[in-house]
Amino acid sequence: MRRWSCQAAASLALAAPLAVQAQEAPPPPRLLGLGASYVADALHVADGGVARGGGLAARADAWVDLNGAALGVSRLTAHVDMIAVHGPVFSDSWAGDAQGISSIQAPSRHHLYEAWVRWQASDNAAPLAIATKIGLIDVNTEFDVQSVGALFVHASHGTGAELAQSGPNGPGIFPMAASGALVTASTAGKLTVRLGAFDAQAGSVNNDRLPAFRLPGTTGALLIGEVEVPLGQGELQLGVWRYTRAMPRVDDDTRNARSHGAYALLEGPLAPHWHGWVRLGLADARSNPISCYLGTGLVREAGAWQLGVAMAHARLGGRARATLRADGLASAHETAFELTAARPVTGWLTLQPELQYVIHPGWDPALRSALVWGMRFKLTWSR
């Protein structure tokens, strides 16, 4: 009896860890991830600009992510995003500014926004991790990403104004992505290089409010490269971009020039609970109205709150100033100051009161500086 008892005890002792391991085994990877978001800006021009007034503009997204690991292809991921935009364009109707007081304002539309496939060519732990992506891509999800500035409502704290103005229908950023392909390479020290080629025309050639899949460069290409260098807990981004096809000059639309530019972004923590950034961008003044852009700001974490102050300063190039001066518009710059605060109310709702002051909106010296106030609402869901 004693021998059988010892054998039973030994069997139980061996089985216990196996049972624990079985209980702690990770669940199988999920094939599909679902998500949705709704971001709304309720903004009002209280003084200055074109006219007093305001409204509510919103962007709704619904997306599906495919995880290749569930199919035994762990290095493959895919993403599809549908978008719907509604509401007024504040800058056209009331503020009169050129940069955009809201990053989600656009003419009402709904369409396929992004649809891409990503392949991780080498493991992230490798000395050189390489990944490729191809499809319908928002350029600003990969290039010129301002992590700290993403808190703010003003459009120039997404993609810098000098880059955002480029291209016949924008450089493949909200509200219309572009067909493209890119390669990302990261070293073990997290130095990252990105190289991308995107179609110069974002959207259909016949209707730029409809998406279109084309081989990158079918209507000319936007070539863009970026180096991301870690600096302590922050980072430095250096980027260059160029369109392969010449575009009409800002001072003489019978002549063409190649649009190109460069940017530098430095961002990261400055002190406990403080984060900041500064971004400088330059563009060819022959084919781009805005030849220089400077953006900067600070964000303070205060409990559940994020408090921020920022500036977006865009300067016209000499050729654009000369053209506008002939039309009675002579201001050399447009500068927007923003004060904002964001706080999650629940796990799915964030409220963000907002205040902006725009000097020389639309380069027009006849327009008084615009005072804008309002609220941003963010609703998110995922599973």
UniProtKB/TrEMBL annotation:
InterPro entries: Carb-sel_porin_OprB, OprB_Porin, OprB_sf
Span of the signal peptide: 1-22
Protein name (Swiss-Prot/TrEMBL): Carbohydrate porin
Calcium as UniProt keyword: no
Record bears the keyword Repeat: no
Assigned protein family: Belongs to the OprB family.
Record key words, sorted: Signal
Organism (species): Novosphingobium pokkalii
Matching PANTHER family: PORIN B
